[in-house]
Amino acid sequence: MRYGERRLKRRIGRSLPWVGGLIALATIGGAIRRKGLFRGTLDSALNAVPFVGGAKNAAEIYRGRDFLRDKPV
To answer: What b/e readout covers 36-69, taking b as 16+ CB neighbours within 10 angstroms?
Structure first.
């Protein structure tokens, strides 16, 4: 039982960086439309990096606003 749990945790831990990268790729188009080419690409690139993206999102939730602003309408 414990061997199975450890193996499952290790497998999930290895797949998490790929899942974050796939989510960033899926949302890059919307980020570029909202923020512009440079800011949208930078925002998606930061989100794709495993621990950096999580820390950035946590800080944005705490602050209540984005680090990289949307482009003016």
So the answer is: beebbeebbebbbeeeebeebeeeeeeeeeeebe
